[in-house]
Amino acid sequence: QLRLSESGGRLVQAGGSRRLSCTASGSTFSTYAMGWFRQAPEKQREYVAAVNWNNNMSYYDDSVKGRFTISGDNAEKTLYLQMNGLQPEDTATYYCALRARSYTVVLLSLPETYDYWGQGTQVSVSS
Fold it and tell me: Could you tell me if 86 and 17 are in contact, meaning their C-beta atoms sit under 8 angstroms apart?
């Protein structure tokens, strides 16, 4: 059974920074992309950022461009999200996701294209 485990979430003051980590373990698998999504109470899960391991390119939702940076190590199946300039609207449970299937062209922002999900880590930003 493949497991994704996130860590790093906590209460942070507005304007602060925090780094989230994600590690995949428990099984052998192919990784074509990994991403971060978030979900606030009573809201839909939304895309934050993703990495396409085929070309090592990263992508971001407009809401976090210039503030968040996604990085990782595909060999070690680890993923990070450096969050700077945190704002109250960033408050949510953050999920790490892994795409194990290969696509020629598909939007990395679509949660339904990811195969494995972590349990989530809570990030709360106080104003």
Answer: yes
pLDDT at 62 over 90: yes
* Token pair in block for residue 13: 């003051």
User: What is d(CA 109, CA 94) in angstroms, rounded to the nearest whole number?
Assistant: 14
Q: Which two three-digit tokens encode residue 66?
A: 């210039």
pLDDT of residue 106: 84
Residues in the chain, total: 127
Nearest 5°: the CA angle 71, 73, 75 is 160
In this structure, are strands 68-73 and 57-60 parallel, antiparallel, or unpaired?
Answer: unpaired
Sheet holding 68-73, edge to edge: 3-7, 18-25, 78-83, 68-73
Quick: pLDDT tens for 37-49: 999 999 999 999 9
pLDDT at 26: 85
Both structure tokens of 52: 């396409």
